[in-house]
Amino acid sequence: MTFPLPPGRVVVVGDVHGCSDELKDLLEASQFHPSLDELVFVGDLIGKGPSPEEVVRIARKYSAKAVQGNHEYNLLQWRKRGGILPDPEGRIKERYAATVKGLEEDEWDWLESLPLKLQLDLPQSPLPVMVVHAGLVPGVSIEQQEPENLVNLRSFDHEGRASKQYDAGGGGWARHWRGPMQVIFGHDARRGLQREPFAIGLDTGAVYGDELTALLLPKNLDRSLAHLEPQHFAQVRARRASFGQIQRCFGLIIKV
């Protein structure tokens, strides 16, 4: 058994999707200390799972930072269209909208305030560390990355074009990323925990009954993400499958 690093960390949590019980389990397993640790989410705090409002309230209670995931982004865009059902653009179904009906207006305002990308404050890291929900396109500056890719990218096709599909033909985007930023992301539960030289993917399918994962980074981190060890990860098993199931293809699983 491995044990989490002592407090004084940036705790980056993968896709929660409204699974508040699992989030509380993960914070306990990682020995999260609100006055010493900083809490960060890779997006998709809401959508699919049973308790999105409680997840948002936990995040705000601990003054967490986060980026918007595709679920926040799409639901916020729908609200800007008037929150009408049926959705004129066909993106938001009635059952899906019902999962977030318990969110208060100030909680929507907080979600609206979240950026699409976030650089972590790790001054001793040999390379900058960026959090995005989905991915980045190599060769494009951070400032010029398209919002659609920041919240939806999973793969490239055979011709190198960005795709939100898992099996586009050219492999996952993180395999192609060579910096200069190191990236922590989510969004890709089918691939599970991903560890590439310049990117780590934390979506391990909690809402599908698999795991919820966190990355534990000391605030004085002085190594690259490629050289993290088992104690830099915490993971808990989901209590239940809240939204179907996925077939895991690959992924290194490290449990606390």
TrEMBL record:
Superkingdom field: Eukaryota
Pfam family, one: Metallophos
SUPFAM superfamilies, per the entry: Metallo-dependent phosphatases
InterPro entries: Ap4A_hydrolase, Calcineurin-like_PHP, Metallo-depent_PP-like
Residue ranges constituting the Calcineurin-like phosphoesterase domain according to the UniProt record: 9-187
Protein name: Calcineurin-like phosphoesterase domain-containing protein
Organism: Durusdinium trenchii
